[in-house]
Structures are given as C-alpha cells and as structure tokens.
Amino acid sequence: MTDELIANRCRELAVLVNRHTDGKGNGFHQTSIAPLGFGRESLTGAMLHGVSTPMLAIVVQGKKGAALGEEIYRYGEAQYLVVSIDQPISGFVIEATPDRPFLGFKLDLDLRELCEIIAAHTNIIAGKKETSVRGFFISTADLSLLDCALRLTQLLDTPQDIPILAPMMIREIYYRLLIGEQSEAVRQIALSDSNMQRIATVIQSIKVDFTKPMRVAELAEQASMSPSSFHHHFKQVTSMSPLQYQKQLRLLEARRLMLAENYNAVTAADRVGYESPSQFSREYARLFGAPPIQDIERLLSVG
Fold first, then answer.
1. pLDDT tens digit string along 152-186?
2. Buried (b) or exposed (e) across 142-167, using 16+ Cβ within 10 A?
3. Which of 289, 286, 284 is nearest to 256 (CA)?
4. How many CA atoms lie within 13 A of 180 on its CB side?
5. 283, 292 in Cβ contact below 8 A?
6. What are phi and psi of 73, to 5 degrees?
7. Separation CA 258–CA 299 (nearest Å)
8. 68-105 tens-digit pLDDT
9. Of the segments 64-73, 133-142, 270-279, which one has the largest average pLDDT value?
10. Alpha helix (H) ranges present in 209-241?
11. Cα–Cα distance between 284 and 119 in angstroms, integer?
C-alpha cells in the first residue's frame, strides 16, 4: 500500500513539473521559488559535466545517471539524489522520450538553515557517531518527503502564498532529510567540526586556486589532519583524490573558456594551469569523450 501511495505522489508531482516545463525546451528551468527548479529532457544523450553545489534532486519521471570520479550511479522515479558538498559530477539521462520526457525536481540546499535546524533540535544528532561518508548519495523517497515536494510545487499556482509558506515547506524538507535513512551526509556537512566540513573547507581553497600546483601537505594542515588521513577522508567524501578533483575543475574551466570566451585549446590549457598541451588534450578527451577541438565543435553545432 505504501509503495502504491509513493508511486501516486510521484505521478502527481510529474504532472505538475510537466505542466511548468512544457513548451520551455530541454534543460533546467528555474521557478519563482528561488531555490527550486525543474529539469526536463526529451531524449537520452551526451553527458552534462559541471560542479554541483549542495542540492536535493528527485526523479519524478524517467531515469538518470551520474558519474562521480570512476563511480556510476543510476536512479529512477521516486528516488532522490543528495549532494552535500561541492562535487564535479557528470549527469546523463538514461530513459526519456518526447512523449514521456525525463522530469526532475531540484532544490538547492542552504547549509546555514540545516545548521539552525540541528542546533534547535539536538535530538537529531543525539547518540550519533561521526563517520566519513560520501558527500553524494541516492535513496528511495518516502511518502513524507514526496508530500513536501508536492506541496511546495503546488505553491507555484498560488504565488501570493509563496513568501509565507515556501520557507516553512523547505524547512520541512530539510527536516525529512535530516531524519531520513541516509541522513549522515546531510547532517555532517552542517556540523562545524565534522570530517566532511573540514574537507568542504579545503575544497573551497582548491576551487579558488585550482590553477596553481597543489600542495597536499598544506591542505592536510588546513584540515587539521595528517597527509595520509586527509587523503583517505577526501577520497571517502568525494570518491576521488585531491589531485583528481583539481584536474576536473581545471578541465571544466578550460571547456568553459573555449566555449564561452573563444579561447583556443593551447591558451585555455595554459590559463587553467597545464604546462603540457598534449597532456591537457589527453586528459580532456578522457573526461569529455573527444579532444578539445572536436568537443567544442560538437557543442557549438548542437547549440
């Protein structure tokens, strides 16, 4: 009975998301509720690469996949993804057609509000022992979480209610995540001295200076960890090493420079910190599936 109710809620949510994205084309569509947006894709296709910030994403129709480092995740209707730390992620649609497009519900997470909820409800963390958890996980949505998502989406039809009711409903979604079966990644990112929060702080440093040579010992010191412990916790949280993380940031920025600012491959490689154009080309092709020139030409032809 519960599974049937969950499926029904998901279908109700899909009807609303479809209505709010119909005629707007494929891609991500922001709504009048600031942290809320919807994804729509009518065809399976190439990977989309980018750095994801903390978010909740629920699949309400179709199936999607995500690549994090060398790990591949797949999730479908009534399943949700939580990203609790900035992550270079490659996303791809597995199941979609023009008649039945992939539809997704996405809510950006405000980590300060998560902290406030934890501080106000200490029972959420009572008896919890800290472990190093992945800053990215997939789980099946329960009825209460889908109910929250549905009620929040319904507010789009009564915009006068959004300023008062939307913050309350978003806070309820946070609470559901914090007491859910996989609450650790959400909870620990909001705790100031957790391993995940230490890694999150280091990641911000890497993002600011990703073009410069990495000094792992300095990053470990910033995290108050030994180099070996830092490397272990970093990989546990992000599924990649610090150097791999930096490499993906460099390649993503190089791609942006070539696509949006008309840089050539050699200049883009130098701009993001590569000393060897041939190494840049090899690593670029490994991540994006084609050498720089071919990849950019394909993207421009699609656009």
1. 999 999 999 999 999 999 999 999 998 887 777 67
2. beebbbbbbbbbebbeeeeebeebbe
3. 284
4. 27
5. no
6. -120, 145
7. 11
8. 877 888 999 999 999 888 989 889 999 999 999 999 99
9. 270-279
10. 216-222, 227-238
11. 44
